[in-house]
From TrEMBL:
Domain GST N-terminal: 6-87
Origin organism lineage: Bacteria, Pseudomonadati, Pseudomonadota, Alphaproteobacteria, Caulobacterales
Organism: Asticcacaulis taihuensis
PANTHER family with a match to the protein in the record: GLUTATHIONE S-TRANSFERASE-RELATED, HYPOTHETICAL GLUTATHIONE S-TRANSFERASE LIKE PROTEIN
Keywords: Transferase
Protein name per Swiss-Prot or TrEMBL: Glutathione S-transferase
Length: 211
């Protein structure tokens, strides 16, 4: 089993769903890592030192003994190819392609739908909530249909597709998106949460979770 030469440095922010999918991947692979919380409010991600690692000035980033990778999807793919035995990212061409398709959704409707609605409520992001809700609902309808009769997004076991899509779907209520009508999606979320390596992203009391 390949082991990192030293604990993998993982630059993260505890409320970032992009970082959370990397956290789940590191935990699924059971490799040692050192979590470094980046203070986004203090703009640490725009410091000269951080920009040397990620010129886009964003978390997540990993440094695996000098190999620096930024962007959650780049990181997950790197980690799976380097440390996984082919379960999280099967090398079967059809399954590989299907997983890539779901990973792509994290930069599309997941980012512009659920994640944007959440950023509006959580961080006062300047964006249109109605448009974010419409994108989120369209995505959830398709995902719910896809999960009919399926436990996982691709194949018969958990893959990077599930780990990548989880956080922003689970936390959609923070953006005011109700998951109640999407029973298959809720069942799939519960499956991910039951995984032995699962760790939750902290819940924020905003949107539908406001008290
Ligand atoms: N596509 C990137 C998005 C990364 C991203 O948006 N990171 C946010 C936190 S969720 C960030 O660092 N924001 C601070 C900034 O842009 O200054 C990924 O998947 O890693």
């Amino acid at each position: 089993m390949t082991q990192p030469a030293a604990p993998i440095k993982f630059y993260s922010m505890h409320l970032s769903g992009n970082a959370h999918r990397v956290l789940l991947t590191l935990r699924a692979l059971d490799r040692p890592f050192e979590l470094i919380e980046v203070n986004l409010r203090a703009k640490e991600q725009k410091s000269e030192a951080f920009l040397q690692m990620n010129p886009f000035g964003q978390v997540p980033v990993i440094d695996d003994n000098g190999t620096v990778i930024w962007d959650s999807i780049g990181i997950m793919t790197y980690l799976a190819l380097r440390y996984d035995d082919g379960k999280l990212l099967p090398r079967d061409p059809a399954q590989f392609g299907q997983i890539m398709a779901w990973l792509g959704k994290t930069s599309g409707p997941i980012a512009y739908g659920m994640a944007t609605a959440r950023r509006i409520n959580l961080f006062n992001a300047p964006a249109d909530i109605d448009s974010a809700h419409a994108i989120a609902h369209d995505f959830l309808h398709v995902m719910n249909e896809h999960l009919e009769g399926r436990a996982w997004l691709v194949g018969g076991t958990v893959t990077l597709a599930d780990l990548a899509c989880y956080a922003y779907v689970a936390h959609a209520p923070e953006g005011g998106v109700d998951l109640k009508g999407f029973g298959n999606v809720s069942g799939w979320l519960a499956q991910v949460e039951a995984l032995p390596f699962f760790a939750a992203m902290p819940k924020a009391k905003v949107g539908l979770w406001a008290e």
